[in-house]
Give the backbone structure.
Amino acid sequence: MLRFDAITKQLKSFFIEIGELSLFTSRFFKETFKQPFELKELLQQCYQIGNRSLLLVGVTGFIIGLVITLQTRPTLMEFGAVSWMPSMVGISIVREIGPIITALVCAGKIGSGIGAELGSMRVTEQIDAMEVSGINPFKYLVVTRVLAVTFMLPLLVIIADTIALFGSFLVENVKGNVSFVLYFNQVLDGLKFGDVVPATIKSFFFGAAIGLIGCFKGYNCKEGTAGVGKATNTAVVSTSLLLFIIDFIAVFVTDIFFEL
């Protein structure tokens, strides 16, 4: 009986949070198109988010390219299909591995940072002070950050994909003496419209999910300073789960669209 009550309480809490997140998201869309537009804060957030994540994303992409090539090359050699390596790695990274890994890295880096920042402002009553002074804190803090992550994540994905392909090229150059021009010609020949565009589009949704969850957890932070840590942790976990759900939906819809 106690176990049933605990499960019921968790389910109730889950659905309440889903409802609050839905209201939070609808408010975001309403506030986005209202004046005044905080362009200066938006540009500053774009710079900070991109600048803070660039090194981590670049290193991650480089390692992904190295690992995929090192792991896949022996198998392709057994079947005499090493010549397919550039196109296969290019398609794998651009379509799936690059966007989802970059999004997960940014969820840990950006999502947690936004959650901690807004959570700290909430518990120290800085957000309340902004409301008293006549500033719309939701538009200034939430809208700018969500839009900044939405705009910057596709750029970070493109950078990660490029660096990952360069890391893959280095392995192929050392192992198979493949030239730079030949390698990237084969990569570009293997990529199609249906590989690049859907991956880019879903990157925008990944960015929106990271920004919305991070802002939602931080903006509604409670329980004092302990709540800041909880908000940061739950922001990363919830965002990671949501990213996989969005990725599945994106792949499913893309498959139907290009099947037609």
